Amino acid sequence: MAANKKPQLPKSVLDMKFMKKTKERIEKELENTQDIEGLYSNIITSEMRHASGNYISESSFIYCEDLIEGRLSFKGMNPEIERLMESENKKYNSDEGSEMQKDVSDDILCKKMDSLKKRKWSASPGKCEIKRKKNK
Amino acid sequence: MKISIGDVALPGDYCEEICEVAEKSKVIIGPGLRKEADRVYITKPGVLKKRSPCTYWVDSYQKRYVPSRGENIIGVVVQKAGDIFRVDVGGSITAALSYLSFEGATKKNRPEVQVGDVVYAKMLVASKDMEPELVCVDSHGKKGRLGVLTDGFVFKCSLNLIRKILNPSCPLLESLKNEWPFEVAAGMNGRIWIKANSMRETIAVGNAILGAEYLNDEEIKTMCNNIAAILAGHVS
After folding, report:
1. Rounded to whole angstroms, how far apart are CA atoms B192 and B183?
2. Contact by Cβ (8 Å): B103, B143
3. Pick from A57, A63, A71: which is nearest to B35 by CB?
4. CATH: 1.20.1280.170, 3.40.1190.20, 2.60.20.10, 2.40.50.100. Which one for B8-59?
5. Residue A87 Cα, gap to closest chain B Cα (Å)
6. What pLDDT score was predicted for residue A123?
7. Which residues of chain B have pLDDT under 50?
8. pLDDT on residue B117
9. Same fold, B8-59 and B72-149
10. Distance between CA A107 and CA A100 in Å, rounded?
11. Shortest CB distance from B167 goes to which of A51, A63, A67?
């Protein structure tokens, strides 16, 4: 449980002047949660808290058996439905098939990006100088 | 009694394999399974099935539809009540279908749905204690495959058969789809709607679907070939 605790601000920060409101709010929150836990502690057992655990219940077969959509049309009976089926098939096939064909190979992209980065770095100080001159 | 995957299961049996997996990772327990105390119990008679990575369910024979969220169903409009239609879906009570949940429907522009119409709709709300709610649009407001089914022929079958023909590995629709033009809508509530150009073709599709219930994949293929041959007039 300790792992998923909310991140908290350090005490030194909360003691600062401008954090007064936040500090009050956090204290209030803490009080509230403690109260709630105290209120229902005799009703809510630890078993109830960990009841769901790793189980996800699903009441429908469509997710269990991975069924297809139930509305189908063949040989041009209903063009509207067939268009939908086709677009879905395409999506399915592209997901399954290999990656998109590349116009630019990874190596070339890497080199190009490197050179671009260098150019950016070398360009940016220059720009600053120009701006400064203008300010003067 | 303790059982494992692939066994015939009866209500009250439990499966320890699921519990062991659940200690390490999340598991999905589908219809017919229930987590009670520290065991997973079976609540329906059938065969315990598993799909990788960790989905478990009981494949049971059933004819009564129990609404569950996200399923597409075929219903018959039985009543217009103010701003909702009451739709018979074969469940314990009728489902509600708002007239606003059709594509392009507004308060002024009501969809043309009459009592007795057959609709293909999605279950939006299906809880134990409430009336189920249907919609005929997706989350983008598009009708997609849903809506009123005009013409055609509706018949009932077991819920298993619907699951069988909608399974991606089932050869039934695959072997019929190149034979003659037809349209089919299968509702998870055990109703099938078919539309074809002639009565003969409609009946042929219907018979093929109903005949597939207790056949294996090979038998389904030969049956479809036979039906296609008869319809084409090669065999009388």
Report:
1. 11
2. yes
3. A57
4. 2.40.50.100
5. 12
6. 65
7. none
8. 94
9. yes
10. 16
11. A67
pLDDT mean values, one per 10 residues, chain A (136 residues): 66 84 87 74 68 79 87 90 89 68 81 85 59 54
Domain residue spans in chain A?
9-49, 106-136
d(CA B196, CA B40): 46
Smallest CA–CA distance, residue A66 to chain B, in Å, is 7
Q: What is the pLDDT of residue A26?
A: 87
Does the N-terminal peptide bond of residue B53 adopt cis geometry, omega within 30 degrees of 0?
Answer: yes
Other beta carbons within 10 angstroms of residue B198's beta carbon come to: 10
Q: Could you say which of A54, A66, A75 has the minimum Cβ distance to residue B26?
A: A54
pLDDT at B123: 93
Cα–Cα nearest to B98, from B110, B116, B115 = B110
CATH superfamily of B153-232: K Homology domain, type 1 (3.30.1370.10)
User: Which CATH superfamily does the domain covering B72-149 fall into?
Assistant: Nucleic acid-binding proteins (2.40.50.140)
Show residues of chain A in contact with B70, CB under 8 Å: 60, 62-63
| Domain ranges for chain B | 8-59, 72-149, 153-232
The confidence score (pLDDT) of residue B197 equals 92
